[in-house]
Specification:
The protein is mainly beta. It is built from one helix and 13 strands; from the N terminus they run αβββββββββββββ. It has a single domain, classed as Immunoglobulin-like (Sandwich).
Protein backbone atom coordinates (compact mmCIF):
# COMPACT_ATOMS: atom_id res chain seq x y z
CA UNK A 1 0.00 0.00 0.00
CA UNK A 2 2.79 2.36 0.94
CA UNK A 3 4.66 1.84 -2.34
CA UNK A 4 1.61 2.77 -4.49
CA UNK A 5 1.22 6.26 -2.94
CA UNK A 6 4.43 7.72 -4.46
CA UNK A 7 3.47 6.19 -7.80
CA UNK A 8 0.00 7.84 -7.69
CA UNK A 9 1.51 11.23 -6.75
CA UNK A 10 4.04 10.91 -9.57
CA UNK A 11 1.28 10.13 -12.09
CA UNK A 12 -0.75 13.17 -11.00
CA UNK A 13 2.31 15.45 -11.31
CA UNK A 14 3.13 14.06 -14.76
CA UNK A 15 -0.50 14.50 -15.87
CA UNK A 16 -0.49 18.14 -14.68
CA UNK A 17 2.79 18.84 -16.45
CA UNK A 18 1.57 17.28 -19.68
CA UNK A 19 -1.72 19.20 -19.52
CA UNK A 20 0.20 22.45 -19.18
CA UNK A 21 2.46 21.61 -22.13
CA UNK A 22 -0.41 21.23 -24.59
CA UNK A 23 -2.26 24.45 -23.86
CA UNK A 24 -1.42 27.76 -25.48
CA UNK A 25 -1.37 31.15 -23.87
CA UNK A 26 -4.11 33.18 -25.53
CA UNK A 27 -3.33 36.76 -26.38
CA UNK A 28 -6.05 39.15 -25.38
CA UNK A 29 -7.07 41.35 -28.31
CA UNK A 30 -6.61 45.06 -27.71
CA UNK A 31 -9.68 46.79 -26.32
CA UNK A 32 -11.80 48.83 -28.69
CA UNK A 33 -11.11 52.45 -27.77
CA UNK A 34 -13.82 54.63 -26.36
CA UNK A 35 -14.92 57.76 -28.22
CA UNK A 36 -12.64 59.84 -25.98
CA UNK A 37 -9.60 58.31 -27.73
CA UNK A 38 -10.87 58.67 -31.28
CA UNK A 39 -9.09 60.70 -33.92
CA UNK A 40 -11.44 62.73 -36.12
CA UNK A 41 -11.30 62.16 -39.86
CA UNK A 42 -13.30 63.57 -42.76
CA UNK A 43 -16.81 64.84 -41.98
CA UNK A 44 -17.51 63.31 -38.58
CA UNK A 45 -16.31 59.77 -39.34
CA UNK A 46 -13.92 58.51 -36.68
CA UNK A 47 -11.02 56.08 -36.60
CA UNK A 48 -8.36 55.11 -34.10
CA UNK A 49 -4.61 55.47 -34.48
CA UNK A 50 -2.91 52.08 -34.74
CA UNK A 51 -5.67 50.39 -36.75
CA UNK A 52 -5.89 50.44 -40.55
CA UNK A 53 -8.18 53.16 -41.83
CA UNK A 54 -11.27 51.63 -43.44
CA UNK A 55 -14.19 53.27 -45.15
CA UNK A 56 -17.93 52.95 -44.70
CA UNK A 57 -20.13 53.89 -47.66
CA UNK A 58 -23.79 54.82 -47.13
CA UNK A 59 -26.39 54.49 -49.91
CA UNK A 60 -28.74 56.24 -50.13
CA UNK A 61 -27.42 59.10 -48.06
CA UNK A 62 -30.96 59.97 -46.89
CA UNK A 63 -33.62 57.50 -45.80
CA UNK A 64 -37.18 57.41 -44.53
CA UNK A 65 -39.36 54.31 -43.97
CA UNK A 66 -41.76 55.83 -46.52
CA UNK A 67 -39.24 55.06 -49.29
CA UNK A 68 -40.30 52.00 -51.25
CA UNK A 69 -37.02 51.52 -53.13
CA UNK A 70 -34.99 50.28 -50.15
CA UNK A 71 -35.36 48.74 -46.68
CA UNK A 72 -32.93 51.23 -45.14
CA UNK A 73 -29.54 52.83 -45.55
CA UNK A 74 -27.10 50.34 -47.06
CA UNK A 75 -23.76 50.50 -45.22
CA UNK A 76 -20.78 48.75 -46.79
CA UNK A 77 -17.05 48.70 -46.38
CA UNK A 78 -14.45 48.21 -49.06
CA UNK A 79 -12.09 46.51 -46.62
CA UNK A 80 -10.22 43.68 -48.36
CA UNK A 81 -9.11 41.14 -45.80
CA UNK A 82 -6.16 38.81 -46.36
CA UNK A 83 -7.54 36.42 -43.73
CA UNK A 84 -11.12 35.23 -43.03
CA UNK A 85 -12.98 37.92 -41.11
CA UNK A 86 -16.39 38.75 -39.71
CA UNK A 87 -18.02 42.17 -39.74
CA UNK A 88 -19.48 43.18 -36.39
CA UNK A 89 -22.00 46.04 -36.85
CA UNK A 90 -23.61 47.84 -33.88
CA UNK A 91 -25.98 50.78 -33.57
CA UNK A 92 -27.24 52.75 -30.60
CA UNK A 93 -30.66 53.42 -32.19
CA UNK A 94 -32.72 51.63 -34.81
CA UNK A 95 -31.91 48.14 -36.08
CA UNK A 96 -30.08 46.28 -38.80
CA UNK A 97 -31.94 44.60 -41.61
CA UNK A 98 -30.90 41.66 -43.77
CA UNK A 99 -32.07 41.83 -47.39
CA UNK A 100 -29.89 39.71 -49.65
CA UNK A 101 -30.03 37.50 -52.72
CA UNK A 102 -31.34 35.09 -53.73
CA UNK A 103 -34.74 35.48 -52.03
CA UNK A 104 -34.51 39.13 -50.83
CA UNK A 105 -36.57 38.41 -47.74
CA UNK A 106 -36.42 41.15 -45.14
CA UNK A 107 -35.18 40.15 -41.69
CA UNK A 108 -35.00 42.47 -38.68
CA UNK A 109 -31.66 41.67 -37.01
CA UNK A 110 -31.60 43.97 -33.98
CA UNK A 111 -28.97 46.48 -32.81
CA UNK A 112 -26.02 44.16 -33.42
CA UNK A 113 -25.25 41.86 -36.31
CA UNK A 114 -22.13 39.77 -36.92
CA UNK A 115 -21.87 38.61 -40.51
CA UNK A 116 -19.41 37.40 -43.12
CA UNK A 117 -20.86 39.96 -45.54
CA UNK A 118 -19.15 43.38 -45.65
CA UNK A 119 -22.49 45.20 -45.88
CA UNK A 120 -25.73 45.60 -43.99
CA UNK A 121 -28.88 47.73 -44.04
CA UNK A 122 -29.93 50.01 -41.18
CA UNK A 123 -33.44 51.30 -40.50
CA UNK A 124 -35.64 52.46 -37.66
CA UNK A 125 -39.15 51.47 -36.55
CA UNK A 126 -41.89 53.10 -38.65
CA UNK A 127 -43.87 53.65 -35.44
CA UNK A 128 -41.18 56.19 -34.43
CA UNK A 129 -42.11 58.43 -37.37
CA UNK A 130 -43.22 61.86 -36.18
CA UNK A 131 -41.23 61.47 -32.95
CA UNK A 132 -37.93 63.11 -32.11
CA UNK A 133 -35.07 60.65 -32.48
CA UNK A 134 -31.52 60.68 -31.10
CA UNK A 135 -28.37 61.06 -33.22
CA UNK A 136 -27.18 57.61 -34.27
CA UNK A 137 -23.74 56.04 -34.23
CA UNK A 138 -23.07 53.00 -36.41
CA UNK A 139 -19.88 51.13 -35.54
CA UNK A 140 -18.20 48.51 -37.71
CA UNK A 141 -15.51 46.30 -36.19
CA UNK A 142 -13.68 43.96 -38.57
CA UNK A 143 -12.55 40.92 -36.61
CA UNK A 144 -10.70 37.69 -37.30
CA UNK A 145 -12.97 34.67 -37.24
CA UNK A 146 -13.26 32.60 -34.07
CA UNK A 147 -10.62 29.93 -33.74
CA UNK A 148 -11.96 26.38 -34.12
CA UNK A 149 -9.44 24.98 -31.62
CA UNK A 150 -6.56 26.20 -29.53
CA UNK A 151 -6.18 29.60 -27.92
CA UNK A 152 -9.12 31.20 -26.16
CA UNK A 153 -11.50 30.93 -29.12
CA UNK A 154 -11.99 34.69 -29.19
CA UNK A 155 -11.74 37.20 -32.00
CA UNK A 156 -9.10 39.79 -32.70
CA UNK A 157 -9.87 43.31 -33.90
CA UNK A 158 -8.32 44.15 -37.26
CA UNK A 159 -9.91 47.52 -37.93
CA UNK A 160 -12.91 49.60 -37.01
CA UNK A 161 -14.77 52.74 -37.96
CA UNK A 162 -17.84 54.73 -36.93
CA UNK A 163 -20.29 56.70 -39.03
CA UNK A 164 -23.01 58.97 -37.70
CA UNK A 165 -26.61 59.57 -38.70
CA UNK A 166 -28.39 62.85 -38.05
CA UNK A 167 -31.99 63.81 -38.77
CA UNK A 168 -33.57 66.11 -41.31
CA UNK A 169 -36.94 67.03 -39.87
CA UNK A 170 -38.16 64.24 -37.64
CA UNK A 171 -38.19 61.34 -40.06
CA UNK A 172 -35.37 61.52 -42.63
CA UNK A 173 -32.15 59.84 -41.52
CA UNK A 174 -29.06 61.48 -43.05
CA UNK A 175 -25.77 59.55 -43.10
CA UNK A 176 -22.83 61.90 -42.53
CA UNK A 177 -20.24 61.35 -45.23
Amino acid sequence: MRSSFPLAVSMVIIALLLAGCTSQVAKTPPPIPTPATLAPTAAGVTATPGYPDISIEATPGRYSPLMSSTVGIHFSTGYNASVPVVYNWTTDYGHFVSWNAPDYRVGIEGRNIVTEHPSVYWSYPPEDMGKEKPPVTIRLVVETERLAHGGSGGRGTIAWKEIHISWEGNDTAVAET
